[in-house]
Amino acid sequence: MTEELLGLPVPSVPAGDQGVAWLRAHVVRFSNGAEHARRRALTTRLIENVQVTSLDELATALGLPGSLDDIAAIAPCYQPHEAVTAEADAAVERLAGGHDELTAARIGLLVQAWAATHAFAERLRTSDPSPPVPITRRASQDGVVEVRLDAHPFGHGPHACPGRDVATRIAKNLAFRALHHQDGPFVLPNAWDHASAVALHASGFPAVGTTSLGVAAAHGLEDGAGLAGAETVRLARMLAGLPFPVTADLESGFGAAPEEVAELVAGLGVAGVNLEDGRPHGLAAPREQAELIRAVKDRAPGVFLNARVDTHWLGLALDETEERARRYVDAGADGIFVAGLTEPRDIERLAALAPLNVLAQARTPQQLGDLGVKRISTGSLLFRAALRQAVATAVQVRDGAEPPAAFGYAEVQDLSRGTRSAAG
Known about the structure:
Low-confidence stretches: none
Number of strands: 13
Shape: globular
CATH superfamily of the largest domain: Phosphoenolpyruvate-binding domains
Distance between the termini: 22 Å
CATH architecture of the largest domain: Alpha-Beta Barrel
């Protein structure tokens, strides 16, 4: 029944020559028939081959740089059943220029992207299963009807959203960033393959990271030596299509030039990356690492860049750690990650610089949150624990002991099927 209703025309809107009324009357969203076909083709061309990581980038790509404040004013008044404010009308006029159909398409695209991605991001952050666009309206013989979009959150039929992929990526980026700005820290589990990632998310974790040791060791490679680049990228691309934010550990960029790493990050589709200043033979110079961070943030500003400072692994003083962290934040890093950081005073000092990530330790998330920590990752712990448990289970089978409980065959199959259908 829902699909039949979605095939009906959208309710007509009154003609208008200024403000929100003009915008509504000239966008694909509220059009039918030949007008809809023409405007949909125009809208599709505007976002064809657009690869962006943030709403700011999308605004620039659409020829409306610096317009998000105006878009935020228009969005609550965009739907025909919503009241129009003078502020929204003025915002449309600032953006409209000659009031042509192409400009209406640009503004309409950005308004819908702004509203849908913010709603989608909030649902991803809180693991809310409801769709980002909960209802749509159609004109039937009985008048205007509301249609639930649980099965088709991006629409269906003639009015299916052509910007689903762009909206989904931006929403994941927004959601992942928001997780670092909550009152308390969030726990980020680190996966090493598709099955571990989907199982962790199904257990209630809103986002998942990858572990460089897990990926490298699973392929018979040494971690931290820059040898697992192809394997890491392959996994990141696979996980990027899952219906939740993923952040990828890219070590130090696998020896590539800053511009190459920047292009890689922009094209991966993940919501975040880790980049460390450790190198196979020591630490990078702070200036070198800052250049890498700056290049990545210039190219992919919506991707959360977690700058890992490896000084504590080498026993260097906190002053050196803090100086490097400051330089990386100044270069554009969104957060800092100091592996091996455990002293409360050191944690508090570094947490004042930017959202701080530490490894899981004896302190509880609440205790670490009280010190200012925003993100707690498991690093390679889960991979190492799973490896130990696998060996222990095999030994128990060999020795005739009862093996421990495990996921059922059907459970694992269902996890894979569920994420495949959600992504597609």
